[in-house]
Design a protein that fits this description.
The complex is a heterodimer of chains A (about 90) and B (about 220). Chain A is mostly helical and about 90 residues long. Chain A is built from 6 helices and no strands. Chain A has a domain at about 35-90. Chain A has helices at about 10-20, 25, 35-45, 50-55, 55-65, 65-89. The longest helix of chain A has 24 residues, at about 65-90. Chain B is elongated and about 75 Å long. Chain B has 10 helices and no strands. Chain B has 2 domains: about 10-105, Rna Polymerase Sigma Factor, Chain: A (Orthogonal Bundle), CATH 1.10.1740.10; about 110-220, Winged helix-like DNA-binding domain superfamily/Winged helix DNA-binding domain (Arc Repressor Mutant, subunit A, Orthogonal Bundle), CATH 1.10.10. Classes of the chains: A mainly alpha (about 90), B mainly alpha (about 220).
Chain lengths: ~90, ~220
């Protein structure tokens, strides 16, 4: 993927032309009952790399800031829980 | 009353949270407390924009959000399929509730209709930052191509798609906010924008503008 450009025209063109069209990711249910994303977050929190286990989804969250923000927040919370559990053991 | 002394399994969470279950009060309290801890962690550790708030204020926010999130978890219990830990799934719901609320608060004065009334999608003076001016020929080619892209936006897209694309792609308005104003949900909005992009690409390619050509033309 080309590197992002930095003005309004570039933003628009980047959004239309440059970002991937992943039908599978768009079809992924982002509503409350999406467990695929939950399962991916668990694996990433446990140390796996998203680009290794779900490269399409990794690219998807790279393009959609809302989804990325939520995914990263969930991973952060899960890591904190794991760290707390490790501290107790 | 029998108590759970160990971490609940997915099945135990589902059983204990059901209406009328003997352990429901404890399960609800445990769920709410867990969600509240998660949300508090997120607000206090992951949100630099909330640094000015005191721990007490963040606790109150977390408590309020946890209440909403807990209700959302209960409303969706039948949708949980056990593909992840129940607590992860619940945390995901909690995260979305918290982040969505923060987004809505930030964009409370935003209006899609007002945005549309502001005029040009792309101001004529918009230019690349710190870019050396292109040659006159390249500048003319860019202007022509941009004009054709903007033309496609207006002819190929519905009004709904156009507004959504401008808000999300150009103004960085969060999807939740745009979805609310369009009276839809975020997943439907993803699909709407996905379809809009497909339609635009097809329209531009039919007009002789390939993806490669356009990107190369506007690269630095």
């Amino acid at each position: 993927m080309n590197p992002p450009m930095h003005d309004k025209k570039a933003q628009l063109l980047d959004f239309i032309m440059n970002q991937p069209l992943h039908d599978d990711c768009v079809s992924m249910d982002c509503t409350d009952d999406c467990e695929t994303i939950s399962r991916l977050a668990e694996r990433v929190a446990a140390g796996e790399r998203l680009e290794d286990i779900a490269p399409d989804f990794e690219q998807f969250v790279g393009c959609w800031s809302d989804c990325r923000e939520e995914f990263q927040a969930l991973v952060a919370i899960l890591r904190a829980e794991l760290a707390q559990q490790s501290g107790r053991e | 009353m029998t108590e759970r002394t160990n971490e609940r399994t997915n099945e135990q969470w589902l059983t204990d949270l059901r209406d009328g279950a003997p352990l429901q009060p404890d399960a609800l309290n445990d769920l709410r407390a867990r969600i509240q801890r998660s949300i508090y962690y997120y607000l206090s550790q992951e949100r630099s924009d909330l640094r000015s708030l005191s721990p007490a204020e963040l606790e109150q926010m977390a408590e309020d959000l946890a209440q909403d999130a807990t209700l959302r978890v209960l409303a969706n219990l039948d949708h949980f399929r056990g593909e992840s830990q129940f607590t992860t799934w619940a945390n995901r719901i909690a995260t979305r509730v918290a982040i969505s609320e923060l987004r809505r608060a930030r964009y409370k004065d935003f209006s899609l209709d007002s945005m549309a009334a502001e005029g040009e999608l792309i101001p004529a003076e918009a230019s690349l930052i710190s870019e050396a001016p292109p040659s006159p020929e390249r500048a003319a080619e860019r202007a022509d191509t941009l004009s054709r892209v903007l033309g496609s936006l207006e002819s190929a897209l519905t009004d709904r798609q156009y507004k959504a694309l401008e808000a999300v792609a150009l103004r960085g308005v969060p999807m939740d906010v745009v979805a609310d104003q369009l009276g839809t949900n975020r997943n439907a909005l993803y699909k709407l924008l996905h379809d809009a992009r497909r339609k635009l690409r097809s329209s531009l390619e039919a007009d002789g503008l390939s993806v490669e050509y356009v990107l190369n033309l506007f690269q630095r």
